[in-house]
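Lab channel / #folding
Pinned by the channel admin:
"Please post every new chain as: sequence first, then the structure tokens as a reply. Keep commentary short and put observations after the output so the thread stays searchable."

First post following the new format, from NK:
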Amino acid sequence: MGSACDNIFYLCHRFYQLKRNLMTKIQEYLAALPEDKKALFIPVFGSVDKFYTVVYLIIRNEHVTDQEKPERYEDRLQVIRQVKNKVEELVSSYGLDGKEIVADIASDYFEDFVNYKEPELDITNEEFIAIIRNL
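Reply from TO:
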């Protein structure tokens, strides 16, 4: 019979495997970035995971605005697309393919959308707005 430490290690390892199975390809790619690349995301986004969430929300806001066409939606779409372009340029300045990474996160959003999935996002409105303002 294994020790308590062996059991805890097994449970932690199993949880890690389950989490990896739930991650999309772009989430796996971002998680596998070298630590020096991940560190580049911290000043603006706080973490790579928060970066993913912010881009996901930008894409969702663009889609919802385009679909619902609220008052002055053209102006809103223009601002959202400017923010998206800033994110792409910022990530490209890290030596990564900003356009491709944002496009992959957009694919995740649209995959969720067509499958009626609404993932829990670990960010408050205040955090999201603060990050957007810091771009």
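NK: The two ends are 54 Å apart (CA to CA).
TO: also worth noting, Helices lie at 4-22, 25-31, 35-45, 48-68, 73-93, 98-114, 125-133.
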